[in-house]
Design a protein that fits this description.
Strand order of the largest sheet: 1-2
Order of helices and strands: HHHHHHHHHHHHEEHHHHHHHHHHHHHHHH
Shape: globular
Helix content: 55-70%
Distance between the termini: 104 Å
Radius of gyration: 29 Å
Number of helices: 28
Structural class: mainly alpha
Strand content: under 5%
Number of domains: 2
Number of strands: 2
Mean pLDDT: 92
Largest sheet: 2 strands, antiparallel
Length: about 675
C-alpha cells in the first residue's frame, strides 16, 4: 500500500481524536470575564467549534477513502426521532428564532445545540475505538482536578471580587452555578471507582483516589442538595450491584470510597441540617457558617423555600403544557410562556421578580416547550439509552467502566429532575451512550486497499467542505465577537456612558443584525442619547436618535412579539422619549398594556401602569391599577405607599390611612416614606 496515499485520511483521524480530547477536557473549564454570559456562552461556543472541525475532518476522511464511515447504533432511530420532534416544535414555535439558537443567556437547548450534540455522538461512534475511548474517560476524570482545585480555592475567597454571589458559601468553580458544578462532578466521579480498581500500580491507584477525594470535597462545598442526593443514591445502587455481581476486590473498592465519602461529609457537613445535627460533633467547621435555607414558607432573611419555588414554577410549566399539549410553545421559550400562565402564588416568592427561563425540571421543561411530541421522544431516548447500558453491562471485560458510565447517566437523570441541563451535562447526556457503545464494540479495521491520488471530484468536494467549514468558523467568531461587544456596551450603559455604549451596541448589531436582545437594549440607549443631545442643544442629532430609538424598538417587538420583558423595556424607552415630547407617553402606556396582557398576574407591570397613568393626570385609573397591584401581591410595599398617596390626593384620607396602617403595621414598620407620610396625615 502506498503510505502517502493514506496521509490525508490519517491526518483527519488524528484531528478528530485531538479535538474530541480537547472538547472533553476544556469545555468544563472554559469561561471568560468579557462576555455577557461568562460560562454557558463560551462552553457552547467551544462545542460548536469542535463540532465544525470534527464533522469537516470526518467528511474529508470519507471522501478520501471513498466509503461511508458510519456506525448505525441502537440509538440511531431514537436520536433521529428526538431531533425530528425538536425540529417540528421549532417550526411551530411561538418564536422560531429563539427555538433555533436557544435563549440568549443560555444558548444551550435550542435546535442548533441538539444538532451539534447528535453530530458529535455519531462522529464519536464512527471514528473512535475502544482503547481511545478509555483514554478519553481518563481525560474526563483528570478534568475534575483543575475544576475541583479552582472550586476549593474559591472557598478561600480569592476571586470574590469577580462575583456578586457569596462564593465561599457555595462554590461553583468554572461551571458558573453550584448545582451545575455538583451535577457535573456526580456524573463523572464514579469513573474513579473503575480506574482505581483496574490500576495495577500503586501510584495510579493513589492518583484516582486523590481525584475522588478532591472531587467529593468540592461536591460537598457546593452545598447542592440535588447533587448530594444523586451521588448517594447511585452509590448505594452500585454498592448493591457490586455485592451481587462482582468480586471481593470491587466490593472493597466501593466500601473504601464510600467510607471516605462519609468521613468527608462528617468533617465538612452536608447540605441538609437534618443530617448535620448528627454530625456536628465530628465537624471541622462551624455549622453556623453554612448557607441557610428556608425550610417552610418565606423567611425575611432566607427567602422562599426551594420546594415552594420549584412547586410554583412546575405548576406554571404544567399549565403551559395544558394550553399547548402537542408541540408546546417551542424549545427554549419558557422565559416567554411562563409569564402567560404564571401562578399568582409566584408573587409570594422571594424571587418573584426574577426571570425564569427554565422550568427547573428538565422533564417539565420539555413538556412545556415541546409538548407531548418532544417529551415522549426525550423519554424514549432515555429509556433506550438505559436499556443499552444494561445490555452492555453483560460484557464483563468493560463492566466497571460501563457501570461508571451508567452511574453518571443516572445522576444526570436525577439532578435534571431538580434542575436542567447545561452544556457540560448535555454533552455527557449524548456522549455517555456513545462511550458505552464504543467500549463494547469490535475494533474496526482500516480498509486494506490502495488509494489512488486524489481525483478531481474528490479535490472539489474537499475544497467545498473546507470552504464551508472556514465560513462556519468565521460565522462562529462573529457570534462570539457580537456578544463581546454587547457586553462592553452593557458596561458602558451602566456607567451612563451612552455614546460608548452606542458604539459597542452598534458593532454587536452589525455582527448579528437579527438578534432582538441587542436592538432591545440599543433602543433604550438611543433614547438616553437623544435626551443628552437635546440638553446640549444639538437638536438635529437628538431628533436623529429619537427616530433611531423608535425604529429599534419597533424592530425588537416585531422580531419577538412574545417576550414580556421586551415590551417592558420598550415602554421605558418611550417613557424616556416622553421627556422630549409628551406624545410618547401614550406609546409607553400602550406597550405596558400589552405587557400586562401577556403577563396578567405580574404586579410590577400593574404598578408601573399606575404610576404612568398618574403622571398623565388620570388619578382614578392610577388608583385602580395600584389596587390591582396589591391584590396580585399583598405584600408589595411600594404599591401600598403610592396607593395611599393617590388616595390622599383624591381626597380619600381614610383609605389612605388604611393602606398606610397595613404597610407599617404588617409589612414594614420601618418604611421611611410610609412613616413620614403617616405622621403627616396624623397631624
Amino acid at each position: 500500500m502506498d503510505k502517502p496515499d493514506l496521509r490525508v485520511s490519517l491526518v483527519c483521524q488524528k484531528i478528530i481524536e485531538i479535538v474530541f480530547g480537547c472538547l472533553f477536557f476544556f469545555v468544563p473549564l472554559v469561561f471568560t470575564t468579557v462576555n455577557y454570559e461568562l460560562f454557558e456562552f463560551n462552553k457552547m461556543f467551544l462545542v460548536y467549534l469542535a463540532t465544525i472541525i470534527i464533522v469537516a475532518a470526518w467528511l474529508i476522511k470519507m471522501i478520501r477513502e471513498k466509503r461511508l464511515i458510519f456506525q448505525k447504533t441502537s440509538l440511531f432511530w431514537p436520536l433521529l426521532i428526538f431531533f425530528l420532534g425538536q425540529t417540528i416544535a421549532t417550526i411551530a414555535s411561538v418564536d422560531p428564532y429563539t427555538s433555533f439558537w436557544g435563549y440568549y443567556t443560555r444558548q444551550n437547548g435550542g435546535l442548533l445545540s441538539f444538532l451539534a450534540y447528535i453530530l458529535l455522538y455519531f462522529a464519536f461512534a464512527a471514528n473512535i475505538g475502544s482503547s481511545k475511548a478509555k483514554h478519553y474517560l481518563k481525560i474526563f476524570s483528570l478534568s475534575l482536578v483543575p475544576a475541583s482545585c479552582y472550586g476549593l480555592l474559591q472557598k478561600t475567597g480569592f476571586d470574590n471580587h469577580l462575583w456578586a454571589q457569596d462564593v465561599p458559601a457555595r462554590i461553583f468553580s468554572t461551571l458558573g452555578q453550584p448545582n451545575w458544578l455538583a451535577a457535573w462532578i456526580t456524573s463523572l466521579i464514579f469513573l474513579n471507582f473503575a480506574f482505581f480498581n483496574q490500576a495495577k500500580k500503586k501510584s495510579k491507584k493513589a492518583l484516582f483516589l486523590a481525584i475522588f477525594l478532591i472531587s467529593f470535597l468540592t461536591l460537598v462545598f457546593t452545598r447542592s442538595r440535588s447533587g448530594f442526593l444523586a451521588f448517594w443514591f447511585v452509590y448505594l445502587l452500585g454498592l448493591i450491584i457490586s455485592f451481587f455481581a462482582q468480586t471481593t476486590k470491587v466490593k472493597k473498592t466501593f466500601l473504601l470510597f464510600g467510607c471516605l465519602a462519609i468521613i468527608l461529609t462528617a468533617f465538612f457537613l452536608s447540605p441538609f441540617p437534618s443530617i448535620n445535627q448528627h454530625l456536628e460533633r465530628f465537624s471541622l467547621i462551624n455549622p453556623q457558617s453554612l448557607p441557610k435555607w428556608a425550610e417552610n414558607g418565606n423567611d425575611p432573611d432566607l427567602g422562599s423555600a426551594t420546594a415552594d419555588i420549584r412547586k410554583t414554577v412546575w405548576e406554571g410549566a404544567i399549565t403551559i403544557f395544558k394550553n399547548y399539549p402537542l408541540l408546546g410553545t417551542g424549545p427554549e421559550t419558557f422565559a416567554y410562556s411562563y409569564y402567560w400562565y404564571q401562578p399568582q402564588s409566584h408573587n409570594q416568592l422571594s424571587e418573584w421578580d426574577f426571570l425564569y427561563n427554565k422550568a427547573h425540571n428538565e422533564y417539565l421543561n420539555f413538556l412545556a416547550t415541546t409538548g407531548l411530541v418532544g417529551f415522549t421522544t426525550h423519554l424514549g431516548l432515555i429509556g433506550i439509552t438505559l436499556a443499552l447500558i444494561l445490555k452492555k453491562l453483560k460484557n464483563t471485560q468493560n463492566f466497571l467502566l460501563t457501570m461508571a458510565l451508567g452511574s453518571g447517566y443516572l445522576t444526570i437523570l436525577i439532578t435534571n429532575f431538580f434542575g436542567f441541563s447545561v452544556v457540560v451535562i448535555n454533552l455527557l447526556f449524548f456522549l455517555i451512550p456513545a462511550f458505552t457503545f464504543v467500549l463494547n464494540k469490535e475494533t474496526s479495521k482500516v480498509m486494506k486497499r490502495n488509494f489512488r491520488s486524489f481525483s478531481e471530484r474528490q479535490k472539489i468536494l474537499t475544497i467545498i467542505i473546507l470552504l464551508v467549514s472556514v465560513n462556519l468558523v468565521f460565522g462562529l467568531i462573529r457570534y462570539w465577537l457580537a456578544d463581546y461587544y454587547f457586553y462592553q456596551g452593557e458596561k458602558s450603559f451602566q456607567q451612563s456612558n451612552y455614546s460608548g455604549a452606542y458604539f459597542n451596541y452598534q458593532r454587536a448589531q452589525h455582527l448579528r443584525p437579527q438578534e432582538p436582545f441587542y436592538t432591545n437594549k440599543m433602543a433604550t440607549n438611543c433614547a438616553y442619547l437623544a435626551i443628552a443631545l437635546s440638553q446640549e442643544n444639538n437638536q438635529k442629532e437628538s431628533d436623529r436618535f429619537v427616530i433611531l430609538s423608535q425604529e429599534l424598538a419597533q424592530k425588537t417587538l416585531k422580531a419577538n412579539p412574545h417576550q414580556v420583558n421586551f415590551y417592558r423595556q420598550q415602554s421605558q424607552t418611550y417613557y424616556l422619549l416622553s421627556s422630549l415630547d409628551q406624545k410618547y407617553q401614550e406609546s409607553a402606556y400602550r406597550l405596558l398594556l400589552e405587557a400586562h396582557r401577556l403577563a396578567p398576574v405580574n404586579p410590577r407591570i400593574t404598578y408601573n401602569l399606575g404610576i404612568l397613568v398618574h403622571q398623565q393626570g388620570n388619578l382614578n385609573q392610577a388608583i385602580n391599577w395600584l389596587e390591582t397591584t396589591i391584590r396580585l401581591k399583598p405584600d408589595y410595599q411600594d404599591g401600598y405607599y403610592w396607593l395611599a398617596k393617590f388616595y390622599q390626593e383624591n381626597g380619600q384620607t381614610d383609605k389612605a390611612k388604611e393602606r398606610l396602617k397595613f404597610l407599617i403595621g404588617n409589612l414594614n414598620p420601618e418604611h421611611p416614606e410610609g412613616r413620614a407620610f403617616w405622621e403627616k396625615l396624623a397631624e
